[in-house]
Automatic annotation (TrEMBL):
Subcellular location: Cell envelope
Keyword Iron applies: no
Family in the record: Belongs to the bacterial solute-binding protein 1 family.
Major site of localization recorded for this protein: other
Pfam families per UniProt: SBP_bac_8
Protein name according to UniProt: ABC transporter substrate-binding protein
Assigned keywords, A-Z: Signal, Transport
Amino acid sequence: MSNTDSRYAGSRSGAELLHRMVGGDGEAAMSALLEGFQSRHPGVSLGDVTDENLSLTVKSRILKENPPDVWVEWPGKNLAPYVEAGVLADVSDVWTDAAMEREYLDGPRSAATFEGTYHAVPLNIHRINNLFYNVELAVEAGVDPSSVSSPREFVELLRQVEVETGQVGMLLPMKNPWTVLQLWETVLLGEHGHDVYQSVTDGEAGRHRRAIEDALDIVSAYADLATDDALYVSLTDANERFIEGESVFFHQGDWAAGAYTETDGFRYGSNWDHVPFPGTEGRYAMNMDAVIASEATDNDEAVEAFLRYAGSADGQRRFNQKKGSIPPRTDVAMGQFTGFLQRQHEDFESSRSQPLSITHGLGVRPEQLIELKTAIASFVAERDVDAAASEMVAAFEQQ
């Protein structure tokens, strides 16, 4: 932590923002947000400190009674340990005074609240239940991606693609367990519905063991139809291979589309497109970042000013344009966003529900997420559905 410790002392004269957005679209997004904040509040001192080990650093500094004033973290159940320890500020006034509540849908609001109290301001939303596809290859295979009604039915479509084109239907990166866990939760949502998904994340996984097993079985079927080297393929590698036309389909969060828009000759709508993953139509499964504040801050006015700006339409427009995500507010002008993100925002506004992602820590506590990734790592290596289901049920029911 030596690269950041030296900066902490110098930033204490004003409010301190700690985040992990270093390089790429994350850094560009944070720079745009801070530039907008300073233009609105030129008299407020706000120093930002970057740290790639943010969660560990925050926990360490809380224990040392020297927490950052504000930091950026996943909301939802990921914040439960902080709330239980009483170290997060109650930011409800920001929501009521700024009239933000009416501009946020239920999903983002629920990720920010604990027992009726707001402890976070969601900053952006990434959708995880996207199914990207190569338009030309889909036509060649004679398949309509929007016609598939369930994850189980999608298995048959992938087999059809292989027969018709001789190519793999869907690339499946399995090098890191989180990509497989993300696919599993999307399959669970699509095959068994939002009520089962919510019940599983609420600690009632034992009641739904068969659904958990079924989703694992479907993921295993996808793996059987993946490339021979799938166990060694990373997300970045798989995304590049999808761009090169190695598969018709690719399931991933909307962050994958950043590489598509930056690739010459790979145009949205004509070369690549997307639909909700089969069975998840009308659901906007979310990963998001949020701004949270320490209960022990000495810089109340500066912290409140930044929280209000982070939750404002202007702040979210600036941040999300650069981040390649959509604003959690529904009243942000989308005219300067890409066509893909404009369509994502339309889907978000019209969605029936906005489930909180398991894989990205919103739908489960940190210790549960560790156990779930461990279970999936074993499943990837051994493909033992029964054993993996037992481990996952135990993880979900750990409270």
